[in-house]
Amino acid sequence: MTAHLDDFGRAEWWTLAKLGVTVPHNEAATCAMCEQGEMQWLGIRAGKLTASKIGKVITSKGEPTKSQARKDYAMQLRSERISGRNDATFVSAAMRHGTETEPKARNLYALEEGVDVFECGFILPHDGAQWGYSPDGICPDRLIEIKCPQPKAFCAAVDSERLPPDYALQIQFGMWVTGIGQADFIWYATDGDCRPVYRMYDADQELHSRFAEHVPAFMAEVDAAEQKTRERIAEIEEKGGRA
Predict the structure, then answer these.
(1) Nearest-5° angle of CA 164, CA 38, CA 122?
(2) From CA 74, how far away is CA 54, in angstroms rounded?
(3) Which site from 23, 68, 153, 201 is most exposed, i.e. has the minimal number of CB atoms within 10 Å?
(4) pTM (2 decimals)?
């Protein structure tokens, strides 16, 4: 069964225990009950590091990135905080396909595995955290991450024994945020004989220790940049709006 929780859509915060999670997990974690993709969800995520972007901050080896993408992402988070809104992103046909196909993949997984899969909005490791994770599904003992590529990409994914680095980082980040030690990664395409393919992953504690070190450090960089910008805005306002 897949289901939204009671009160889904309300701006309430729930512990993961509300999802029926019984394995040892981060009891301080809270979950925003809002529809993913909606304005409320975008607002909650604004200015926070998210799982889909963790590859811009940390490499697959757990080291801080040194790319322009890191600088651009830090700028994006700062601008979201200053503006108070989440920057809109381009949605390709492939991305739209994935979003539209995901519910079917989640339902098939729940049916074939005989488990309850719940949907929720955005999970924070603790109240006030500056980073979080939007799961594609959550079960009592595991997270669910779903990718629904086009058939050609699906076949390539099935042939590969390893997840692409960004996907591997994303799912490990989700486990680190929630404290849940297992996750099923689901590949699914709707055409022909492309049945869902499930692969289970365990928490990589060494990588999680790197998250614990480098994620707060990155967010401290964003904090400092935001403060500098706000101080500059204040100076300009004191001058009557003249830079």
Answers:
(1) 55
(2) 11
(3) 68
(4) 0.88
Q: Which residues pair with 30 in a beta bridge?
A: 15, 124
**Does residue 11 form part of some domain?**
yes
CA–CA–CA angle 45, 50, 54 (5° rounding)? 160
How far apart, in whole angstroms, are the C-alpha atoms of residue 79 and residue 87?
8
H or E element at residue 212? helix 205-238
Does 49 reside within a domain?
yes
Which positions ≥6 away from 15 have C-beta within 8 Å?
27, 28, 29, 30, 31
Tell me how far apart the alpha carbons of residues 125 and 84 are, in angstroms, rounded to a whole number: 22
Positive/negative CA dihedral, 49, 51, 53, 55: positive
The terminus-to-terminus CA distance of the chain in angstroms comes to: 58
Distance CA 76, CA 239 (A): 27
Instruction: State the sign of the Cα–Cα–Cα–Cα dihedral 20, 130, 11, 134.
Output: negative
pLDDT in tens, 8-32: 444 467 778 877 787 677 888 888 8
Q: 147-177: per-residue pLDDT in tens?
A: 887 777 777 777 777 788 899 999 999 999 9
6: domain range? 2-229
Count, residues in the chain: 243
Question: What is the CATH number for 217?
Answer: 3.90.320.10
In a domain, 234, yes or no: no
How many domains is the chain partitioned into structurally? 1
Residue 23, domain member (yes or no): yes
